[in-house]
Amino acid sequence: MPDVITIDGPSASGKSSVARRVAAGLGLPYVSSGLIYRGVTYQVGRYGVDPQDEAAILHLLSHHPIQLVPLPEGNRMLAEGQDVTAHMHTLEIDQAVSAVARHPEVRAYVYRSLRALQPPFVVEGRDMGSTVFPDAALKFYLTAAPEVRARRRVGERDADYATVLADLLRRDAADAKQIPPAPDAIIIDTSAMGLEEVVNTILERIRT
Ligand code: ADP
Ligand code: CDP
After folding, report:
1. Whose CA is nearest to atom 10 of ligand 1?
2. What is the pTM of this model?
3. How many angstroms does the Cα of residue 50 sit away from the middle of ligand 1?
4. Partner of 97 for a Cys bridge, out of 3, 16, 30, 41, CB 3.0 to 4.6 A?
């Protein structure tokens, strides 16, 4: 079995739901890289740090550390030892996270955290296959039409379809530099696929 399996893709393409199920099918942990960017963004908001000030964000993290806990049933985020996972998937964090994630030193911090984890695992994000784990044996990239992704996400946010779609399109554009799939990734358009179908497609590719 491969050491590291990467699943990348834009917002609400199904990365975390699919990664969790694929990892469970293989008996491996799964790792959400986006949750680390969300954790950093949470601390930035909590301590009133300027999201444009890269040095201040790094200073903040060294004094008020966060920790990803990759549990099989769902990854948790600890901020200074307190479980703040329930605060990670709000529209406020959605709207602020890309600005925080664009800083090279913030990305380097997240890369270090991910590379410190002991394989094997399934990891999901934007640039796991292209940048963080370029030697991963198997790489997948999920896509879906923006309207389909917004419809999936709308039930999970305290916001209407138009607001969710607008945020998703804005974040797609803001994240675009980080998004290109690894050249050796298997691309799966999930627009007309159910969750189980995507999971089974990936598990079949891994097992053959
Ligand atoms: P991401 O991690 O890429 O943001 P999620 O895994 O959180 O995406 O999926 C967003 C929502 O869409 C979840 O409610 C999930 O159950 C649902 N979903 C994901 N993939 C599919 C699919 N292929 N068909 C239908 N719903 C899906
Ligand atoms: O699935 P969704 O995009 O809604 O959320 P996420 O995967 O938790 O990622 C949140 C944000 O973190 C993204 O919009 C990116 O700005 C950033 N991110 C990133 O830059 N690189 C990654 N590998 C993962 C997330």
Report:
1. 12
2. 0.96
3. 31
4. 41
CATH topology of domain 4-207: Rossmann fold (3.40.50)
Name every protein residue with a CB atom under 6 angstroms from any ligand 1 atom: 9, 11-17, 152-153, 156, 190, 193-195, 198
| pLDDT at 1 (0 to 100) | 56
Atom of ligand 1 nearest to the CA of 19: 6
How far apart CA 45 and CA 105 sit, in angstroms, is 18
Res 2: pLDDT: 63
Q: How far is the CA of 126 from the centre of ligand 2 (A)?
A: 6
For residue 125, give Cα distances in angstroms to 17, 53, 67, 106, 160: 12, 24, 17, 15, 25
Q: Which ligand is nearest to the CA of 89?
A: 2
Q: Which residues of the chain carry a pLDDT beneath 70? A: 1-2, 177-179
ipTM over 0.90: yes
Give 60-111 as a DSSP string. Answer: HHHHS-EEEE--TT--EEEETTEE-GGGSSSHHHHHHHHHHHT-HHHHHHHH
Q: Which two tokens stand for residue 167?
A: 């945020």
Q: How far is 198 from 22, CA to CA, in rounded Å?
A: 9
Distance CA 39, CA 35 (A): 6
